[in-house]
TrEMBL record:
Species the sequence originates in: Companilactobacillus ginsenosidimutans
Name used for this protein in its record: histidine kinase
Taxonomic superkingdom: Bacteria
First-tier enzyme category under EC: transferase
Presence of the UniProt keyword Kinase in the record: yes
């Protein structure tokens, strides 16, 4: 059985007032009874009954209005949530009261939670839209090639070979797109255990540098190593490697005739600074801010030809930000591009001092 809070409050507050009144009235009546005549006591009793009725009625009215004021506010909260249940993308929010009390804190918190949830669902929606849009092209290309194969491929060996090669290329592209999309969603849900990991800087950079030098023998790859031996950064090793691979891959992909890449890493007491520089096509000023957005490619056709999906930099940025670092880019069209990363160094002496201070 549903009993309204208003009824419960009114009932209980009235009972408490009545009980308190009865005790006071009983004590007063006994005192009067001991000292006064029977008529005076009787008059006093009648008065006590009337005052009792008035006190209980006043109690009922006051508790009814007090609970109504709070309930009216809860109703506003309820209506807003109802509104959002019916229309999840509606931007209706609970009207915040001016008074600085618990209800004010409650509404501010609920509104903040609604903002966060809405931003999250919008992000998911945009992601699904972006993904469907990105998959449409390779699927259409594949369908075209397969239809061509079905019509003419059986009789024409040239069409057969071309279509199979193109279909396989398109499939590979879809594979890399799916892998990068998975990487991106994984980055969004990094476990907190990774956030406590530390990575020694020098061995990782040496390994990545050697790998790229071997993979691109036609390039002059320089490594300016100014890393304090033994220094560590607070990031999971594979995540830092993933970021370096993304930036170096891009540097190779978007290099022009000048096949030269500079990788530089330096440490001080607070930061690891990384620079990845190429002398390639560059990025126009208007595109610079957007290159970190999901699926953003400056030149869609060129990026597609080089196997780009427009996800690498958004993954790199997200990763670096999760570990409290920064990533920035400078570029001049036709002259080249410089990506810069800064990550906090694990300063064991400083950390030890801080820990001692806290003890
Ligand atoms: P993609 O997989 O397409 O390379 P990214 O997210 O890594 O995706 O990069 C986004 C876009 O930024 C690229 O499509 C390219 O247009 C531009 N870009 C990234 N790195 C460079 C670079 N080193 N030189 C020139 N343009 C770059």
């Amino acid at each position: 059985m549903r009993i309204s809070i208003r009824f419960k409050w009114t009932f209980f507050i009235s009972i408490i007032i009545l009980a308190a009144y009865l005790i006071v009235a009983y004590v007063a009546y006994n005192t009067v009874d001991n000292v006064a005549s029977a008529t005076v006591t009787h008059d006093f009793f009648i008065k006590l009954v009337w005052i009792g009725i008035i006190v209980v009625l006043a109690g009922i009215v006051i508790s009814f209005f007090a609970s109504t004021a709070v309930l009216r506010y809860l109703k506003v909260v309820n209506n807003t949530i109802d509104d959002l249940n019916k229309k999840p993308d509606s931007d209706s929010r609970i009207k915040v009261r001016k008074s600085n009390d618990e209800l004010y804190d409650l509404t501010v918190n609920i509104n903040k939670m609604l903002d966060r949830m809405q931003a999250y669902t919008n992000q998911q929606k945009e992601f699904v839209e972006d993904v469907s849009h990105e998959l449409r092209t390779p699927v259409a290309v594949l369908e075209g090639h397969l239809s061509m194969l079905q019509r003419w491929g059986k009789d024409d060996p040239e069409v057969l070979a071309d279509s199979i090669t193109s279909s396989l290329q398109e499939l590979k592209r879809m594979q890399s797109l799916i892998q990068e999309m998975l990487d991106l969603t994984r980055v969004e849900q990094i476990d907190s255990e990774y956030l406590e990991q530390e990575t020694e800087v020098e061995p990782l950079f040496t390994q990545v540098y050697n790998d790229f030098k071997m993979l691109h023998p036609d390039f002059a790859v320089n490594f300016d190593d100014d890393i304090e031996p033994g220094s560590k950064v607070k990031i999971y090793r594979n995540h830092l490697e993933q970021v370096l691979v993304i930036l170096l891959d891009n540097a190779f992909k978007y290099s022009g005739d000048r096949k030269e890449i500079n990788l530089a890493a330096s440490t001080n007491e607070a930061l690891l600074e990384v620079v990845v520089q190429d002398y390639g096509v560059g990025i126009a000023k208007k595109d610079l801010k957007q290159v970190f957005n999901r699926f953003y490619r400056v030149d869609k056709a060129r990026s597609r030809k080089r196997g780009g999906n427009g996800l690498g930099l958004s993954i790199a940025k997200r990763l670096i930000e999760i570990y409290q670092g920064t990533i920035t880019v400078e570029s001049v069209v036709g002259s080249g591009t410089v990506f810069r990363i800064e990550l906090p160094i694990v300063n064991s002496e400083l950390d030890k001092n801080m820990a001692n201070k806290n003890d």
